[in-house]
Structures are given as structure tokens and as C-alpha cells.
Amino acid sequence: MTTTAEITRRCLALYEDLDFASVRAWKAAAPGRKVVGYMPVYVPREIVHAAGMLPVGILGGGDGLEVIHGDAYYQSYICRIPRSTIELGVTGRVDFLDGMLFPSTCDVIRNLSGMWKIMFPKAYVRYFDVPQNYVDAIGGSYYAHELAELREGLERLGEVRITDDALRASIAIYNENRRFVQAVYDLRAREPWRAPATEVYLLMRAGMVLPVEEHSALLREYLDAAAREERPRRDNARVVVTGAFCEQPPLNLIKSIELSGCYVVDDDFMLVSRWLQGDVPLDGDPLEQLALAFLHRSVSTAMRYEPTQAEKGRFLIDSVRRTGAEGVVFAAPSFCDPALLERPMLHSALQRAGIPFTSFKYAENAGQMQPIREQAGTFADSIKLWSAP
Amino acid sequence: MTVKEPSMLKQKEMIARNYDRLTRAPQHGEKVVSTFVPGNLNELLLCFDVVSNLPEINALQNGMRKKTGNYILEAEKLGHSEDVCTYVKADVGMMAKGNLAPNGEPLPSPDLLLLSYTGCFTFMKWFELLREQYDCETVMLHVPYAGDGVITENMRSYVVKQIREVVIPALERISGKKFDIDRLREHLAESARAEDDLVRVLESARHRPSPIDAWFGGVYYIGPIFTAFRGTPDATEYYRLLRAEIEERVALGQGPITPDGEMGEQRYRLVVEGPPNWTHFREFWKLFYDEGAVVVASTYTKVGGLYDDGFRHDPSKPLETLADYCMGCYTNRNLPQRVDLLEKYMRDYDADGLLINSIKSCNSFSAGQLLMMRELEKRTGKPAAFIETDLVDPRYFSPANVKNRLDSYFQMIEQKRRNRPTAA
Ligand code: SF4
Ligand code: SF4
Fold this sequence. Notes:
The complex is a heterodimer.
Chain A: H1 4-16, H2 21-28, E1 35-38, H3 45-50, E2 54-57, H4 81-90, E3 99-103, H5 107-119, E4 124-128, H6 136-158, H7 164-190, H8 197-209, H9 212-228, E5 237-242, H10 251-259, E6 262-266, H11 286-297, H12 314-323, E7 327-333, H13 337-353, E8 357-362, H14 370-387
Parallel strand pairs in A: 1-2, 1-3, 3-4, 5-6, 5-7, 7-8
Helix pairs in contact in A: 1-8, 6-11, 7-9, 10-14
Chain B: H1 6-23, E1 32-35, H2 42-46, E2 51-53, H3 55-64, H4 68-77, H5 86-96, E3 112-117, H6 122-134, E4 137-142, H7 153-175, H8 181-203, H9 218-221, H10 223-226, H11 233-252, E5 257-258, E6 261-262, E7 268-273, H12 281-289, E8 293-298, H13 318-328, H14 335-348, E9 353-359, H15 363-366, H16 369-380, E10 384-389, H17 399-419
Parallel strand pairs in B: 1-2, 1-3, 3-4, 7-8, 7-9, 9-10
Antiparallel strand pairs in B: 5-6
The complex binds iron/sulfur cluster (2 copies).
């Protein structure tokens, strides 16, 4: 029987491998296989999968990559993820990519799509736009067309036809994956000592590079192992981590939050695997179903427009209530306009709801964790103090 | 500026009148719509007789009046990060400090926030922040980015549908006026007339000497057409006057008028990418004209429309033309298109080099500029230079650094000239 430790070791190896050996192996296993990268926060991986291609999440270089070339492409006041992504590109570490999708997350990723076009002219590069209007006949119809364009682009790239049936099959496979992902999150919210934040993080990171079927199997194994294993339960404060939806914090930072006395019961890391909440229906036109799911069942995050003031912050507050969290940790990448401009609005929503919070910034390659550990520790202590009977 | 030409006086008067109208809107029962400059729907707003308030212009005006430093600090005190766009913080800080317009009167609360977000994601957060303050109706106009360098039919019909089904009904509701498409056509025709004249003004920089500075002077020339006046007879008249003045300068072989009078010998013809700095605008400009550097083309003067690329508001397709306008603005174009445009400017305007003013605040402009610079050096063989400032945060304007950078850049151009065998 596999243990959580074994699974975590495997995921850690995948996480640390900045040459993406597992992806290369997948590609080499059969002739003509294609790999399509995507950046945070959301792309419909179902369509890539239905083309028989492997979607691979490109989330920068973390603290394991020395950025030598990337800094020459960016001013000091721009976040880290685009420069380490460029580094991955120019050093050939992601030369297996046949295509790259740049979602409409922010101006930095948007502009990176054009840079990629200039720097890697042979790749299929698409800026992937999602609607900020959530009316079916307006934003929905626009988005369904965008999805159709993505489908056509991938058909050309792979010289394949992506049938509706293939799309439905892929949607079903991703529905299953979403259910497992949710099950892991639910488990952690219920019994966070069974599923520590670093382990859950690494598990989800594995989903960025593994074929989805393999990832689902891994999640299932983890759920089984976690349920079996008895692990010490601590008197930690339960927190939701938010703001880290794009550039990823170093693993040490997540570890530090935990070591400082917090159980992370929800987060917004790698939202792509939880973006659509619940199953996407398998009947009807598959692209339309993906579009409707996007319009009406997306998570709320800084890159999405919130049409009503009353709803601002509601998603976060709901997450706090649902998971029984006692506080919120805002962890945002330095120079991240979306996360940092969103923050004051979420602060006021939390204030109104009487939910304590603390905030800090990080960089994906940050080394010094002491200040964050202290800050999170003080926060955890204050929560415990307040909640003491 | 010292010399007051008729066009300058006219613009000054138009701006002052508009601020007076804006600050008195509540007394006069006029409705106020706040919106952004790039891709704005001014012709449509005119159809509803609403007064528009442009937060970016307020930030710019406050920057020039050296007020933004304090406003930004105030916003940071209120919890805004030092990392984010300073236009937003200048606005938030201004509100916290009494929300005074340049005429000293308080700005009214908007009746509608028209979130037309062309070319910048920060706009979306900015108006969400304002909505929290004002608690007023907010309408989103999502303008898709031209990621592949084209405007597809899908993109166009998406924007048209939003204008028709979301924006117009909101404006009708707020103003109590019915939408009249013929009135829109009239305003669009008026816009096109002014746009023709603006293009002639911008293209006058092909002459030697250039009669205009297409960046420092250019920001004045685009004022009316990028803001609340496009589509009005006032704007048309302004551009008619301006064009006549510029044509006269061409005929007389005169250069641009700077704050210190007419510019002397033009030694360097530059193309500039990026916005200027507002807090030290005159000081900044002086670093150029003192050395005989004149800007012959700039991209910042295209954030509110690329008219020199052929676009005109077209009364025969009123909503489609608005959609195309929104999507065609400079920062809504992809990076390869931006590089192509700059390359074209370098050639068409026979420039000696490219200068990038990279703005700390503005990811929309700045992310990718270093690659653009490399590309353009490679393609044109002309020297390029990179300076860093901010729009309205005085902490990021270092005159000594900028001067050093510019000095060595001008030397580089000289050197290049000397090394060019055919240069006579
Ligand atoms: S970290 Fe923030 S600013 Fe940087 S690319 Fe991601 S969303 Fe954009
Ligand atoms: S990021 Fe740039 S375009 Fe956007 S609001 Fe700020 S200064 Fe303007």
C-alpha cells in the first residue's frame, strides 16, 4: 500500500524537475505526440486533452531556478513569474512545448504572449481570452466562439480532428479529476492534520505535469493513504491562504505558514484544477457547456470582474465559513497588480464579516522565511487568543 | 507655455469649461459618468448629455500640479501597496483628501462608472475600488485584446452586443434619455473630421525641422480628442486651428514651441515608446530640447486611437466603429504589432533612434519593452535607449539618472553617425 510519504516524494521529484523529464517521457512514448503549455490562472484543459495532447502548467521557475537571462527582459518592478518563464524558454528547458496558452490573467501575462510569439516563432501561441460579461447570449456566445477557435488552432497544430465526442470524453475525465481534487480539499478542511498544506500543494502541482488520468489515480491513492494514516493533531489556527493564484510561493513559504502554527484549510494555488465548480454536463454542445460552466460556476478571483459590489469578497468569506477557518492569510506576489489591488477590497469585506487577516508579499525565489514565519506565528497566536473560551 | 497660440487658448478654455460643468453637474441636474481614456465611448456619452469624468486625466492634472506625491502616500496609508499602479493611488488619495477638481471645487460622485477596459487590466480593479467608495451603478465593457494581432468578427460582435445591450440601456436609465442613433452618427462624423486634422498634425513631424514635438507637445494635441471633446464641434474647431498653425510653422521652417520658446537646432530625431512623466514634465522636456532632441513620433499619443494608421470613426456603422475603435487602441495591440508600428515610425519619420520611457506603474505598457527594444535595434540598426520613470509618482523621477542616460544616448547617436560612411 502506498503511503502519503511515498506519494509526496514522487510529487516533490516532479516539482523539482525543471527539465520536465516526465513530460518529455510522455512525449517520446509515441510518435507525433504534442504538448501544450499554459500559464495561470485558467485555461480549458479539456480541449487540449481532447486533441490527444498533454496540457502542462508552466508556473515559472520557483526557487530552484537561477534566472540568468530572464532578468534582461524585465524591469525590476515586474513580478518574477514572467522572467523565470522566459528563462525556462531560452534555456531550452521547455523546448518540448509545441504550443503555449497565455490566459487573460493580467497585462504581464498578456504581453508575455506577444513576447513568446516573437521569441519562439515556431510554437503555436495563443492569448486565451475569457469573458468578463456573464450573460449567456453575450459573454457566453463570445466565449464559445473563442473555445471553437482554440479547438481549430489545436486541430491545425496536431493535424487531428477534435470531435464533440472526444470533447465529452475529456470533460468526463476532467470532471472526475475535479471531484478528486475537491475531495482532497474537503479532507484537508475537515482534518487538516491528515493532509498538510505542503503535501496538498505538491499533489496539485503534480497535476500540472501529469496526464490527468494519472493525476486522478494519484489523488485517489493519496485520499486512501491519508484516511488510513494516523498523524498527530496540533492545536493550530485554521487559515485560508489567498492571493497566490499566479506566481507561486516557494514551497518553503507554505511550509513556514504551517510550521508557524497554521493549518491551511483552503487556498487559491493552481486554481485551474478547481476553477469550474462541480461537473460540466456531458449532454448538449460540449463547448457551450464549458462556456456556461465558466460563466456561472467559476471561482471568484482577482482576474474576474465582480459585477455587484455586494458580492465582492463573498466567495472568500464563504470559503472561510465552509472550511471553518478562523482567519485569512493574504499572500501575494510582489508587484502583482491584480492581487494587490484586490486586497484592500477583500480586507474590507473581511473586516465587515469580523474575520481576522494578515498580509504579506513574496517572490517565487524568496529565500528568507523568518519574517513570514514570525508574522504567521503571531497571527496564529492572536487567533487562538481570541477564540480561547 | 509662454507663447499662447489660438489653439492652446482654445484648449485651455475647453478644459476649464468642462471642469466647471463637471463640478456643477449636481446643481444643474446633469448626470456624471466616470470612464477611462483608452477606447472611450465619448460619442455615445454625448448622445445622453451626460458629463464625463476621466480619473486618468484627474491624476495627470494633479501630477502636473505636483499634488500626486501626497495623494499616493495617502492611498498607501489607507492600505494600498507601494507596488501597484500610481494612477489608481493618485485617484484614491485624491478622494481621501477631499476630491477636489483642478478648479478647486469638489468633484461630484459619479452616477455611473463605465468600466470600458481597453488595454489594461488595472482599469477593472480601479473601478471596482471606486464602486466600493461610491456605491453607484457600474457597467463593464469588456474589450477583448488583439492577442493575434487581428480583430475577429467574434470580438467585434461581442463588443457591439455589450454596447447595445448593456451600455446603452444603462445610459438611458441614468440619463432618462432615449438613445438616438442618428445623433450618434452626427457625433461620429464630427469625430472623423477632427481625426483627419489630427493626423495631418502628427504627420507634420516628417518635415525637417519637425514643426512639432510629437510626445511632449503631442500630449497636448491629443488632449481634446482623447477625452470629453471627441465628437463635438469644439474639438473639430480646435484641430482646424491647430492644423493651420502647424502648417504655417512648416511653411516658415519653424520648430516646435517649448516652454522656453521656439526650439533651436534639431540634432536628434527620436521615436518614443511609453507615456511621459507628469510630475516633472517641464524639467523632463527641457532635458530633450536643451540638447536639440525632438520627438518625431510616439506611441503614447496612440493610446486613444491609431488614427495615423487609418482608423476613422465611421458614421455608417455606428456601433461597429465604436467597437473597432476600442479594440484598435495602441495598448490593445499585441507586442509584435507594437514592434511593427515602432519600426514603421522609425523609418517613416527618419528617426535617429528609439527611446523607451518605461513607466513603473504601467504593466500594460512596460511588460515586454526590453524585448521590444532589442527587436527594434536588430531590425533598424538604430540605437535605442531605456529610461525609467513613473507617471505621477515623484519618487520615481530621478532627474540626474535620466539626464545621464540621455546624455550617453545622444553620444551614442553621434557615434553611430560618425561611423556611417554615407552620412553626409
Ligand atoms: S504574478 Fe500577478 S502581475 Fe505577475 S503575471 Fe501573475 S497575475 Fe500578473
Ligand atoms: S496600468 Fe497603465 S494603463 Fe493601466 S491604469 Fe495604470 S497607468 Fe493606466
